[in-house]
């Protein structure tokens, strides 16, 4: 969780070299637990010291030699010069994943490494940094962050800043709409030329359009809204923010500007 700005770029193997040229610390999305409960690294992926390991544990159900696996993870972090690890459990946390997070949290603190977990694993990994999502479709982002800070402490909260492009058909039955690409968003803006608004509660831009007799609500991020999310978090003492590369490639210089 280093870096003078507090920004960390999470990248897959294909974009690691490009992301490294930004000068920001990296979260290497190149690791997973595979067959035989062993640690696997994506072939040909370069490791940049000072960053973090992002470990996909979605395929880990438990029951394997946990001590050996933890030593493998530790040795990889040490050999690569990483400052810690981020656990990515997938949609549903299993007992095995919770046990792994618990063991890692205890040993990592003893060995001077940082551990970052989503909220779904926070109770299993006391003392770990907790990822708080900023991609909300409702509610109030400032209150969302404030509650997390009250629960975990500002020094233990990190933002997971996902750049949102999402189209909701109204009325929306769930909190998830259709994910758009940047090209699809641009096409909607060109075709409908809507008035774009800013939501202070969500710290996101939005517009409304009609198609086939249905009303659509489109929520999206740009450099200004992502900067706003980060600034809101800084008000509560939260410094670390994970951005996904290359989704912020075209706006990263603006995000990194003065005040962030």
Average pLDDT works out at 92
Number of strands: 14
Q: Low-confidence spans: pLDDT under 50, at least 5 residues?
A: none
Structural class: alpha/beta
Largest sheet: 8 strands, parallel, barrel
Q: Could you tell me the strand content as a percent range?
A: 25-35%
Total number of helices = 7
Helix coverage percent of residues?
A: 25-40%
* Overall 3D form: globular
Computed CA radius of gyration, to the nearest angstrom: 19 Å
Order of helices and strands: EHEEEHEHEEHEEEHEEEHEH
* Main sheet: strand order: 1-2-4-5-6-7-8-14
Termini Cα gap: 16 Å
Write a short abstract of this structure:
With 260 residues, the chain is of the alpha/beta class. The protein has helices at 16-20, 66-80, 95-110, 141-152, 182-192, 223-235, 252-255, and strands at 7-12, 26-34, 38-41, 52-56, 84-88, 114-118, 129-133, 157-161, 165-170, 178-179, 197-199, 204-211, 214-220, 240-245.
């Amino acid at each position: 969780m280093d870096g003078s700005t507090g920004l960390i770029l999470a990248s897959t193997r294909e974009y690691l070299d490009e992301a490294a040229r930004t000068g920001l610390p990296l979260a290497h999305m190149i690791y997973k637990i595979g067959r035989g409960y062993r640690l696997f690294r994506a072939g040909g992926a370069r490791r940049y010291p000072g960053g973090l390991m992002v470990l996909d544990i979605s395929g880990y159900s438990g029951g394997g030699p946990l001590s050996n696996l933890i030593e493998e993870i530790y040795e990889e972090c040490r050999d690569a010069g990483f400052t810690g690890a981020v656990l990515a459990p997938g949609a549903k946390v299993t007992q095995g994943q919770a046990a792994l997070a618990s063991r890692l949290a205890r040993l990592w603190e003893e060995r001077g490494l940082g551990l970052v977990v989503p909220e779904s694993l926070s109770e299993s990994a006391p003392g770990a940094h907790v990822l708080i999502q900023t991609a909300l479709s409702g509610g109030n982002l400032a209150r969302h962050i404030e509650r997390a800070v009250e629960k975990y402490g500002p020094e233990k909260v990190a933002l997971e800043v996902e750049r949102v492009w999402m189209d909701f058909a109204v009325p929306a039955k769930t909190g998830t709409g259709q994910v758009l690409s940047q090209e699809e968003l641009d096409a909607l803006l060109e075709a409908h030329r809507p008035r774009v608004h800013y939501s202070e509660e969500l710290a996101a831009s939005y517009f409304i359009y009609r198609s086939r007799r249905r009303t659509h609500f489109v929520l999206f991020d740009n450099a200004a809204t992502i900067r706003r999310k980060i600034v809101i978090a800084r008000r509560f003492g939260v410094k670390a923010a994970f951005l996904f590369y290359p989704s912020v490639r075209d706006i990263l210089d603006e995000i990194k500007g003065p005040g962030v």
